[in-house]
Amino acid sequence: RTKYAAGEEQSETIFINTLNKIYGEVHIQREFTRNCSILRVGSSIIGNSLIKAGAPIGRKATLDPKVPWLVRQGSKEMKSSYLRAAFDDESSVYKEKKRNSGYIILSRYRHLQDLSKTQILELKEIEPLMKSRTFPTGHISKTIPLKKAVSLIKDPLLIKKLKKIPKLLQGEANLLDEFGIDNRFFGRCFTKTDAGRYSICVDLFISRKESLKKFYKHIGYSLDRKQEKLVNLVEGENEVKLIQHLNEEEGKIC
Questions:
Q1: Residues 6+ apart with CB under 8 A from 153
Q2: From CA 166, how far away is CA 111, in angstroms rounded?
Q3: For the CA atoms of 167, 4, 254, 78, what is the dihedral angle to 10 degrees?
């Protein structure tokens, strides 16, 4: 079965309309998990077609999957559509108030797998230094900055595990590179989840002005709220009109 965690109402609308356009009228149920709206698709045909396209089965953080093969081998238009959907769901846009600058951030998580007993013991020694966070759902996680966690570890193989970029995020960075959009990684935090799993979070940043303009030109957002923030980030209406004009000359649609 296919489930989609919708971050906001417009996300739900786009997801449902897309499914109906491709597959015909689809029966969808709505459920709520940890205060998040989940759309549950009843038809197995949709899940099977996604699997054939390279979508992973299960939790991305546990599986550490790559970008689907269909996207990696697809056209520029397909890569742009994939990135737009990924950034719609998983990214945030920030503009600094004091300076005329800002950035886009995309975050991905990866659970640590195949840990030895000695590595688990070494990670447990860090736990007293971690800060606890309680969510509205009652779930509790412990976290520490990833850089600090790495500095406390002695096992070189464990350090390598902690520094490893999630494959999905690395693949998305590679797709951005194809559009000339510079980006960089930042290891944000090391976490022990409520379920007892050890996890890392890595952020991808787009902050250079020219790269933000290219992101607007080639990728953009489907969500109005985020697109408006992006418009403000690339220096307002005049800048956007210039980019739209260049796109029209190239026969492209933003």
A1: 122, 123, 126, 159, 162
A2: 9
A3: 50
Identity at 61, one-letter amino acid code:
A
pLDDT per residue as tens digits for the range 12-65: 999 999 999 999 999 899 888 766 789 999 888 999 999 999 999 998 999 999
The overall pTM is greater than 0.70: yes
3-state secondary structure of 177: helix
User: pLDDT tens-digit profile of 225-248?
Assistant: 999 999 999 875 454 454 454 455
| Tokens 């238009």 -> residue | 77
Nearest to 107 by CA among 209, 191, 8: 191
Interior angle at CA 207, CA 168 and CA 162, nearest 5: 40
- Label the pairing between strands 131-134 and 2-6: unpaired
Rg (CA), the chain: 20
Residue 55's contacts (CB-CB under 8 Å, 6 or more residues apart) are: 68
